[in-house]
Amino acid sequence: MLGPLVTLNCGLKCPQLGFGTYTTRLGQCRDSVYAALQAGYRHIDSAQMYHNERQCGEAIQQFMQDTSTKREEIWFTTKLQDLSGYEHTRRAIDGSLKECGLGYIDLFLLHSPYGDRLGCWKAMEEAVQEGKIRAIGVSNFGPHHIQQLLDSQPQIVPAVNQIELHPFCSQQKVVEYCQQHNIVLAAYAPLAHGEKFGSRKLLAIAHKYNKNEAQIMIRFLLQKGFIPLPKSTTPSRIKSNGEVFDFELTKEDMQTLQNLDEDYHSDWNPTISPL
Ligand SMILES: NC(=O)C1=CN([C@@H]2O[C@H](COP(=O)(O)OP(=O)(O)OC[C@H]3O[C@@H](n4cnc5c(N)ncnc54)[C@H](OP(=O)(O)O)[C@@H]3O)[C@@H](O)[C@H]2O)C=CC1
Asked: Pfam families attached here (predicted)?
């Protein structure tokens, strides 16, 4: 396995380096997830919205069969697309389980705050009690969305908040709130879709460590304690994005990268939507 595990507030340990699958064309998804597993990734990030839970599940099962890897050695995350309340969520969880074919889901997230958050959460808690899901969390939630959930005195508190995070998007308020509440941050679009490659300071740091810009961005997020989820369908990039455990950024270089923050969102940003 590539890299360490992160302990979530529910006690489960999750591989810190994940692998993203958004916008991966369906024909490529199985191959890229398989290539990621071959490269040592043990954490795959899917979603109902990506329509690829089946392909991810097939790649994981094939890899387990080919390499005698046990199911519990691989972490599979997926997300609820439509927050249409309790009954819908019960059915949607069963749908995801059937699609992925993995027996259980390691982490199930509310994909966004848009909809009946509390009703959906209740269904997710029940699915944990029924053994269908191991951990539950949220994605794209701002502090006010999480606070509302905590104020409802849930039986299970969110383990993870998955938001856009990289040196150009630090989301400091959301990060501080989550850290105060022992909620681990997962970093989506950790490469800002490549839109910031070429930035002078990022390039200089990459040259200094003899690494590429993607590796520096991923390493920065790892050292912050986040769970980066880089996506690629290119086998050489899948591999190189995992080669981030043989060097360490100095405190000064971490600060230089931190100072690149310009609240740059390469994707949507529902964290600021009103309750
Ligand atoms: N919860 C949410 O709302 C969201 C969650 N996500 C999750 O986070 C994951 C990552 O985010 P994503 O939006 O995919 O964006 P990323 O920041 O991971 O960027 C992916 C893009 O960067 C390219 N790329 C990857 N590695 C390299 C490299 N080493 N050098 C140059 N280019 C590279 C890829 O190209 P190529 O594939 O051609 O190699 C692809 O075009 C998603 O796949 C998804 O799982 C993402 C967005 C929203």
From this structure: Aldo_ket_red
Helix boundaries (H) for 189-234 = 200-209, 213-223
Ligand 1 within 6 A of CB of 270: no
Question: Binding site for substrate, residues?
Answer: 111
Cα 94 from Cα 109, distance rounded (Å): 14
**Nearest alpha carbon, ligand 1 atom 5:** 188
What DSSP element (H or E) covers 255? helix 251-258
* SS3 per-residue string spanning 122-166: HHHHHHHHCCCEEEEEEECCCHHHHHHHHHCCCCCCCCEEEEECE
Out of 191, 221, 233, mutate this one to test ligand 1's pocket (max ligand atoms within 8 Å of CB): namely 191
Alpha carbon distance 163, 28 (integer Å): 25
Tokens read off for 111:
């994909």
Work out which ligand 1 atom sits closest to the CA atom of 112. Answer: 3
Q: Which of 153, 136, 23 is nearest to 89 (CA)?
A: 136
User: What is the CA(232)–ligand 1 centre distance, in A?
Assistant: 6
What are the structural domains of the chain? Answer: 14-264 (3.20.20.100)
| pTM of the predicted model as reported, rounded to 2 decimal places | 0.98
Q: What is the DSSP letter of 115?
A: B
Residues recognised as catalytic: 50
Q: Is the ipTM of this complex over 0.85?
A: yes
How large is the average pLDDT for residues 173-187?
98
Residue-wise pLDDT tens digits, 5-45: 999 999 999 999 999 999 877 789 999 999 999 999 999 99
Q: Residue 235 has which token pair?
A: 């086998």
Q: What are residue 231's phi and psi, to 5 degrees? A: -115, 140
